[in-house]
Design a protein that fits this description.
Elements: E1 20-32, E2 36-54, E3 60-65, H1 75-94, H2 100-107, H3 112-122, H4 128-136, H5 140-192, H6 197-211, H7 216-230, H8 237-251, H9 264-274, H10 279-294, E4 302-306, H11 313-324, E5 328-332, H12 340-343, H13 356-364, E6 370-374, H14 387-394, E7 403-404, E8 411-412, E9 418-423, H15 431-435, E10 438-441, H16 447-465, E11 474-476, H17 478-487, H18 495-513, E12 520-522, H19 524-531, H20 541-545, E13 551-558, E14 561-573, E15 579-582, H21 587-602, H22 613-616, E16 617-622, H23 636-648, E17 656-658, E18 661-662, E19 668-669, H24 674-683, E20 688-692, H25 696-702, H26 705-708, E21 712-716, H27 719-726
Parallel strand pairs: 4-9, 4-10, 5-6, 6-9, 11-12, 15-16, 17-20, 20-21
Antiparallel strand pairs: 1-2, 2-3, 7-8, 13-14, 14-16, 18-19
Length: 732
């Protein structure tokens, strides 16, 4: 008998057999299914195959017997033999499939080689390859050493299996014991009339879910999850996840609304009480409330307040909530870059929660709050996500009645929510999101409006916050407030002015704390003493800087309001560099400079400029505050005026500013941000403003007569009109 190298080969040839085999005596042959024979054989001696003499109809070979050598008996060999017998006896006793007679027989074998063969033949863990290796080893001592290693490994595996089995049985028995004890505890509590605590919790949860006012679809899903929870063990990891989900479902305001009656007159009083001016915004809110009073079931509009910081966008949202008698919820969108913050996380994630929209509604406790989304223009948008796209469903009145949060995975009606968004600028807001909102601009305040707001709101609030009494401790004069507005704050909003008022109040609080309690009249001198030197120059700055030819005053729009922009033009001999532009000008503004220079050169003869001057001179356009980037087309006519002033040696009229885009043919095109620009001009002491003719409608709509005051506005269509209005007459 010889073994196959690969037992899967059906018809092995000489190359598929091992060289070493055994001579066997066949004791019995039994036929088994599929035409196979089961042979019972006894190995007699080792043989080696010399050559195969036939392969058909069966394999025939010449073999030779391998002479086995038994080693000389030594003390070391005897110790090895006894170790093998001892290990084999331990394995037999630990293995239920091995007969105890095997250990007795092994103990009676004295020859090392025969003992190794006997143990190898009866050790079931040996693989065929390991048995073949032992068969090919003719030295009895070497075989005994190999079998000793196998027995040691097998005993370690048996001990390890035994330990694992005992641990598993211990755990199972402990679990069974706990199960029986719990069942007994339930039976005892039932007999005593006391329900299981977890059962009581589930029953309370069921009552909350039934009383939550869900739709049938949502209620079916919630009850399915509750029934699934009731079949879970409280020790299961999924138990806590499902319970938290159901608590969210039970606590959401599915049908709870404010229920207050809309009173348009009362709302108008509240809005006028909380905010000065902002007539357009108030009119839009009162229009909405009037419709809501006539038709209570109304889809909430999406209002977007756009304006500089500090003009009252967020506080206006609170006033609207108070006027409506609704709860107010607010989340800040600034820097948010993950759409899961809007739609929530899937429940499969660890620590999953609903999105900020659902969380805000749960905090508000009603399904119709005034919900403010602050700073939508500062939403993040990168490889991590695009929350602006996730807001599209939330802010669409046609879709948000079936808003589906990823965590809840059931529809929630957001159509009753009055969403209000705020932004400083609209440019970063995607077009699709902008299309879903009604834009309401909030421009800056004039000096007079700031004075009124200061005495109505800022001074009372700051004196109260700093522990002062308006009648006993401090009194602000109107001159001091105007001085702070002109010389310490040049902004569209009120935030910095309130800080300065707070600083003066704190100084007075400190004097009182030091023991000097007397009424203080806030004057210009006190303002300078408490706030330090003025930060801005006087209103004569515009007139002073335009005393020389080549300087013109423009008007710029910024995210924090309007600003006055000085543009300077210079000329030097040369002609090699042509046009030089400095002051961090953007590409659009650089193109305006090029267009202005082209118009000036095209009309040089008309204004008495030598055309050859441009060949022999370099022209330099500079916009001061060079560290601040500037861009936009609205400085075109200002650039042309500065160039013409420099080349004709005619100064720009003092206290005059202008804004408008220029074309190559000298036409003046309309620009945006008129209200901010005009208010900035008034703050800067400008008395006359040149604007494009087509912007006259914007001025009438956005600016009141008291905001313009004594300022004179000129509307122009062509650059020739600008020159006549802006430049002083030519010298004699």
């Amino acid at each position: 008998m010889v073994s196959q190298l690969d037992p899967r080969v059906e018809t092995p040839g000489p190359a598929d057999l091992y060289e070493i085999g055994t001579v066997c005596v066949m004791h019995k042959a039994i036929r088994v299914p599929k035409e196979n024979l089961l042979l019972f054989c006894e190995g007699v001696a080792r043989i080696r195959t010399r050559e195969f003499t036939a392969t058909e109809p069966f394999l025939r070979a010449r073999v030779e017997r391998i002479v086995e050598t038994e080693p000389e008996p030594t003390a070391e060999l005897e110790a090895l033999r006894q170790n093998v017998i001892g290990l084999f006896q331990q394995i037999v006793s630990a293995s239920p499939n091995l007969s105890d007679d095997l250990a007795t027989t092994a103990a009676q074998i004295t020859e090392p080689g025969r003992l190794a063969d006997w143990v190898a033949g009866n050790l079931p863990s040996l693989s065929p390859a390991e048995r073949q290796q032992l068969l090919e080893q003719s030295d009895g001592k070497a075989r005994l050493n190999v079998i000793h290693r196998h027995l040691t490994r097998e005993l370690e595996l048996l001990e390890l299996r035994g330990r694992i089995q005992s641990q598993v049985q211990g755990q199972l028995s402990q679990s069974q014991r706990e199960f029986y004890l719990r069942e007994q505890l339930k039976a005892i509590q039932k007999e005593l009339g006391e329900g299981d605590e977890s059962s009581r919790d589930l029953e309370d949860l069921r009552k909350k879910l039934e009383a939550a006012g869900m739709s049938e679809e949502v209620k079916t899903e919630a009850m399915r999850e509750l029934n699934r929870l009731s079949r879970m063990s409280s020790a299961s990891p999924e138990y806590g996840v499902t319970r938290t989900y159901l608590e969210w479902m039970a606590n959401l305001p599915w049908s709870r609304s404010s229920g207050s009656q809309v009173d348009v007159k009362r709302a108008a009083e509240i809005l006028h009480e909380d905010h000065y001016d902002l007539e357009k915004v108030k009119d839009r809110i009162l229009d909405y409330l009037a419709v809501l009073q006539l038709r209570p079931v109304l889809k909430g509009p999406i209002l977007c307040f756009v304006g500089p910081p500090g003009v009252g966008k967020t506080s206006l949202g609170r006033s609207i909530a108070r006027a409506l008698g609704r709860k107010f919820a607010r989340i800040s969108m600034g820097g948010m870059h993950d759409e899961a913050e809007i739609r929530g996380h899937r429940r499969t994630y660890i620590g999953a929660l609903p999105g900020q929209i659902i969380q805000g509604l749960r905090r508000a406790g009603t399904n119709d709050p005034v919900f403010m989304l602050d700073e939508v223009d500062k939403l993040g948008r990168d490889f991590r996500g695009d929350p602006a796209s996730a807001l599209l469903e939330v802010l669409d009145p046609e879709q948000n009645n079936t808003f589906r949060d990823n965590y809840l995975d059931v529809p929630f009606d957001l159509s009753r929510v009055l969403f209000i968004t705020t932004a400083n600028v609209l440019d970063p807001v995607p077009d699709a999101l902008r299309d879903r909102m009604e834009i309401i601009p909030l421009e800056g305040y004039t000096e007079q409006e700031k004075v009124i707001i200061s005495f109505r709101y800022l001074i009372p609030r700051q004196t109260a916050e700093n522990g002062l009494d308006v009648e006993k401790d401090i009194h602000f004069s109107e001159e001091a407030v105007r001085f702070m507005i002109r010389r310490y704050t040049r902004e569209a909003g009120m935030r910095n002015l309130e800080r300065e008022i707070g600083t003066i109040c704190r100084k007075q609080a400190r004097r009182i704390a030091e023991g000097v309690r007397e009424m203080v009249e806030v004057t210009q001198e006190l303002v300078e003493r408490d706030l330090g030197a003025p930060r801005f120059r006087t209103d004569t700055e515009v007139a002073e800087r335009t005393r020389r030819p080549g300087v013109a005053v423009g008007l710029a729009w910024t995210p924090v309001g309007g600003d006055v922009l000085f543009i300077e033009a210079g000329r030097m001999p040369g002609g090699s560099k042509g046009l030089i532009m400095t002051g961090q000008l953007g590409p659009v503004m650089q193109e305006s400079v090029q267009a202005a220079l082209t118009w000036v050169r095209a009309n040089a003869t008309r204004y008495g400029i030598d055309p050859d001057l441009f060949k022999t001179s370099d022209i330099h356009i500079h916009v001061p505050a060079g560290a601040i980037p500037k861009d936009g087309p609205s400085a075109g006519i200002t650039m042309a005026s500065a160039l013409l002033s420099m080349l004709t040696d005619r100064c720009v009229r003092p206290n005059l500013a202008m804004t408008g885009e220029i074309t190559l043919t000298g036409q003046v095109l309309p620009v945006g941000g008129l209200k901010e620009k005009v208010l900035a001009a008034k703050r800067g002491g400008v008395r006359e403003v040149i604007l494009p003719f087509e912007n006259e409608v914007n001025v009438r709509e956005d600016l009141k007569t008291e905001q313009i005051g004594e300022m004179k506005i000129h509307y122009v269509k062509a650059m020739e009109e600008v020159v006549n209005l802006a430049l002083e007459p030519p010298k004699e």
